[in-house]
Amino acid sequence: MSASQQTAHPAALLDARGLRAYYGDAPALHGVDLRIEVGGKVALLGANGAGKTTMLRAICGLIRTQGEIAFAGQEIRGFATEDIVRLGIAHVPEGRGTFAELTVEENLRLGGIIHSDKARTRQDIDRFLRYFPRLKERIRQQAGTLSGGEQQMLAISRALMLRPRLMLLDEPSFGLAPLMVLEIFQILKRINEEERVSLLIVEQNARLALELADHGYLLETGRIVLHGSSAELKANEEVQRAYLGYSGSKARRPESTPG
Amino acid sequence: MDQLLHQVVNGLATGAIYAVIALALVMNFNSTGHINFAQGEMAMFSTYVAWTLIAMGMPYGVAFLVTVAISFVGGMLLERFVLHRFRNAPLLSVVVVFIALFLGFNAVAGWIWGPVLKDFPSPVSSYKTGTSLVGAHELFVGAVAGAMLLLLYGFFRFTTLGLKMRAVACNPTSSRLVGIRVSWTLALGWGLAASIGAVAGMLIAPLTFLDPHMMTGILLYAFAAALLGGVDSPPGAVIGGLVVGVAENLLGAYVVGAELKMSVALVIVVLVLVYRPQGILGRVTVRRV
To answer: Which value does ipTM take for this structure?
Structure first.
């Protein structure tokens, strides 16, 4: 794969078309189109119950779906979750999915369990823990005893252990102190640049998500109602009013720039 | 004094058997998160299979290995075709399935092999230990239990498959999201537990005779042993087994009498659950959300 080709004409890493998803017989997504470019950072915004988590679960094959999902040119809809994951899609789930009774190290080893090269798995642990020095101190600790922020860091590093091409993150800011949230979003930015992992981030905190992302999609009751570049979305009045906390068309507040 | 010592040694010998069944329970708990109440009956059934093979003229050692293999496959099939359907069912439904398996194995064994007690051979019955304190079979049981403990400990602690099994028990969805084939891992866990149970059955049968009810009491002791040791800890299961075995023998001989021996197990179960739910070596599970 040549880099020049990618920049000239960005290829889609993930391309979902007309994606429908169901909980039992109840539809939760009504034909969603969503595209992530190689190396892209996409924010998926929307209110509670709009279908954001469902979208991530649909990509991973955790619920019943219809439509098309192409990953790196290959149709993956209908694949078992285990097989989708093995293609290089790492999912950091809602609630972080910690293996609470296992140690931090065991959690990380599990992240890379599909790779048979054990020496490389050990190297990967050291390499990815450089993003999270705090976890390194707690490597032998039972993962369930970590703080919420540390568990989020663990979930992200566990996802990195897969050596994914795409990382799906479900509300990485949930329940964390503001400083911890900023730290995690800075690390996500570095991971995108240094590890060349594309990101799809579901967030309640739209401001934060649009600062990190280059593109954004707005979900309402299972439909995409708006999408565009982050700058376009930030400038959109409806987005400002409903998701960025501005009142009316009044003003642009100074934005908080992390770091 | 001699009699006391004798009771202790006897207790250790039966305790080693409780330990092996407790190991099977721990094995199953560590890979599925459930306590399989039918574990004892599955072990009894396996022992009948071994008896049949030996009766057909197979040498003991070969019959032993073949039985372990058959039990492994049987345990896997049971998971794939029965338990698999209750994967997302509420805990109570799973418990009902376990009770159904318990009654089913018991009834089918009675139907196939009849209610008459059968002799089951010991591979070491012709050897003498040179002391009246401990028989050759008791020593054999102790050695096998110790070997199984080491194997299982190593398996969970050091192998990738062991880690996968613990992961699946801990969080099935996250396990799928790291690429573990959860349904196969669960089936393997059932197979291993069934194999361990088969070993226990073949160790017990020479002491108790073989009949469809031989495991009912033993499962209760093994359950007490697993709880006492910490239900997720293989070494705990062995310690728990030995403690329960000795306590049962001493209390039976000197305090409550043979008729009330069984209640010792229940008292231990209740005391552990009230005062130390994690057992002797079990991990205290702390969840922070």
So the answer is: 0.87
